[in-house]
Amino acid sequence: MGQLGTAWRRYKVIGRKMESEVVCSLHLAADDGGPLPPFAAGQFLTFRLSGPDGRPIPRNYSLSSDPSDLSAYRISVKREPPPPGRPDLPPGFGSGFMHDEVQIGTILQGSAPKGQFQLDEASQRPVLLLAGGIGITPLLAMAHVLARSSRRTYLIHACENGRVQPFSGELAELAVRCPNLTVATCLREPGARDHALAHHHFDGVVTADILRKVLPIGNYDAYLCGPAGFMQAMYGLLLDLGLREEQIRYEFFGPSTVLKQHPPDALATRPAVMPRTEATQARGTAISVTFSRSGISVPWDGSSRTLLDLAEANGLAPAFSCRNGICNTCLCEVEGEVAYLEEPLDEPGPGMALICCSVPKSPLVIGI
User: pTM, whole model, 2 decimals?
Assistant: First the structure.
């Protein structure tokens, strides 16, 4: 798998559980027996998997466990087809490896918990957790945290059917135990067994009518996670129901403009709301950014989250994969100084920068 950088660590699989026909949970402990770092509900781990040519390829999996229990991390992996644009990868690479090859005792190379898609525990507004399919994983961790609070919480999980739906039992038990938590399930194509067991609440997709039936009138913090079409539809529904954009946080795949426009064609984890940091404060400064090979020079005016977003907004298509400073696909030559929204796992060398997670601190010339 290649030499480990300082931010990579070794995890030992100490448990496995099939949550549905297509979702497998892996329970992870530190291989050296030491304590696991705390994590915030909504964060993920990145794993280094060996690609066909031996070079490491990153894969991100959200932590689905209760953040208060650090006896082990839990990630929950849905078996998926290969990612678009990677015909070199074998069928099911990543998720298939996790399902078929990883067993109790397997050692995995992974990062510490990462990601800015986090539950805002300082807010006192009621919470809507809206999940599509495997998008339940980060929201389940949030549900565990909220279940211990006094905040009114509504979790809606949309799935194809009961055979593929994970965590139905865990969610039901959590709702019974915690009176402030309401759980509702929508199955798009429920089978006869689903109707016989009556474990779901609505047939079909999530609609505005369903949201009105589940949610009392109020002012909510909303957290969304799921496939592209689901995310786009839910984002529009929530705006129509009166939520403001700043009240909607999401973990999403694709370029920054995708949520409001068209389905994505590339993978990238994207939090909608970033915390204020020294790096993000640079957005308010009119700094020039020049893409030298393309002959484009534009001001950094704060409308883009990262330099990669800025390039895409100006018609460029730089290479990227993880969009979290992990895989080095977006590594570019730069003249000038950048600041990172998230610290890269492996620090770029002099004159280089990862544009997927950085903003300018000075005028920049980028070799794109």
Answer: 0.77
Please, which pLDDT band fits residue 116 given cuts at 50, 70 and 90?
Answer: confident
E runs forming strands in the chain: 9-18, 23-30, 44-50, 56-62, 73-78, 107-110, 127-132, 153-159, 181-187, 202-203, 221-225, 248-252, 270-271, 287-291, 296-300, 331-335, 338-340, 352-354, 358-360, 364-366
Quick one: average pLDDT of 106-131? 93
Determine the pLDDT at residue 233. Answer: 92
Residue 333: strand pairing partners: 352
Cα separation, 112 vs 221, in Å, equals: 27
Q: What span, in angstroms and rounded, lies between the C-alpha atoms of 210 and 233?
A: 13
CB 298, CB 289: distance < 8 Å: yes
Band of the pLDDT at 147, cuts 50, 70, 90?
very high
pLDDT tens per residue across span 80-91: 876 665 666 666
- What span, in angstroms and rounded, lies between the C-alpha atoms of 162 and 24? 15
Distance CA 16, CA 147 (A): 25
- Which pLDDT band, with edges at 50, 70 and 90, does 263 fall under? very low
Cβ contact 79:92 at 8 Å: yes
Is residue 289's pLDDT more than 60?
Answer: yes
**Spatial CA neighbour of 279 closest among 325, 318, 248, 322:** 325
The Cα 3–Cα 12 span in angstroms is: 18
Residue labelled with tokens 């999403």? 252
Beta-carbon neighbour count of residue 178 at 10 Å? Answer: 17
Q: Which of 92, 83, 94, 114 is nearest to 50 (CA)?
A: 94
Are 92 and 53 in contact, with CB atoms under 8 Å apart?
A: no
AA letter at 288: S
